[in-house]
Every structure is written in C-alpha cells, then in structure tokens.
Prior knowledge:
One of its GO terms (molecular function) is metal ion binding. By secondary structure, the chain is mainly β.
Amino acid sequence: MATTVLHKADTRGHADHGWLNAYHSFSFASWYNPDRVQFGSLRVLNDDTVAAGMGFGTHPHDNMEIITIPLEGDLAHKDSMGNAATIKTGDVQVMSAGTGIQHSEFNPNADQRTKLFQIWLFPKTRNVTPRYQQITLDTAEQKNNFAQILSPNPDDAGVWIHQDAWFHLADFDKDFAKTYEIKKEGNGIYIFVISGTVNVDGQELETRDGYGITDFKTLDIKATTDAKFLLMEIPMKY
C-alpha cells in the first residue's frame, strides 16, 4: 500500500526579500516546520524569483548535491573550483559540494527577472571531491514523456550526482496519461507541478503542489489540463 504526503502550494514557506521572492517546500532559512524538514534524501526544494541584476553573494556548501533548474531568464555562476558560467532556461546545473565549495549566483540581466528551482539532496557518499556540471536539455523530449535530466550514472541521459536518484521533466498535453515504474526498490517519488493540473493515482495536484509517494512500484499519471511537472525519484534511506 502506497504511503503519501501532500504539500499544497499555499502551505509552503515564503520569504520576500525584495530582490528575492522565495517559496520553500521544506524547512529553509528562517522558515521551520518540523513536519516538513525533508522527504527521504530530498532536503530542499526552493522556488525562487531573483530580481533583475540581483543575486546571492559568495557562500559555502559541503556534503550536498545541489541541482539548479532555471525556468525563466538566466543565472550567472562562479565558484571556488574555477567555474564561471551562465545557465539559461532549458539548462540544468549540478554541483557536488563534497569536501566544500564556495559559489555565487546572480541574475546578469538588468531588465528581466530570473525564476528557478534549487534542489538539495543528501549524497550517498560524504566528502567527495567537489564537481560541477551543466547541460542544455532537449525540451522536445519532455513532450508527453518522462525526460530524464539526472541520474547516478555519468553515461546516462542528463547530469549525474552522487546519489541513487533519477529526475525527469515532463510536458503533458491535456488528457495524456503515462505510467512511471520505480527504478530502484525502496526509493520514493516526489512530484512537483510546475504548471497545470495533474492526477497521480487519483490524487489531483495543482500548480506548485508537491506530492511524495513511497511503497509503490508503478504510478499512473494523467494531465487533466496541459501540464508541466518535475518527477524526482529519490532514496528514502541513504
């Protein structure tokens, strides 16, 4: 019997700093909810809007797998590994913080906001050598499909991280349905709706809702409107 947890969009933490408007699916910074600390190895899912020309100053991370998915606009990145790059809508970026990194992120555009998801997963191996990777996705692969954008395997589609996790982006037409099969026994799924309305095994999800499911083998997912969503398969034990 599947076990589920529903996080409606309006139950998320919220902080509006002017330059940054952030929604937190899990406890983050000054927002703490003891029932919303993590879902398995998924520790952070932030839905951020960064004002034009603004950003995050240099700050440290360690022993975390950090995934950034731009939804609108660009994000310029610099880090202590010597990487300096700009990620754009349609890209995905990962950093394995490992033994420790410092980085900064800012919106390089003076006339356009940047919207992005930043996601943190606990790694399966601590104190790895820090690494950075970014790729441009073929968004056409997401049409009525679970397009893989992240896995544990460097040779697979998408970026890779030090965790037995698989991320997919999907862009379903209204009434399209597809079944997802778990890739690793014991993993769970966290689905986050980017836009539209999706039905997952009978549970209706709306824009920016999150839904965690464990103890299952397959999930039937149907778009009840045109819909985009992020599907994250993650270890519940790590």
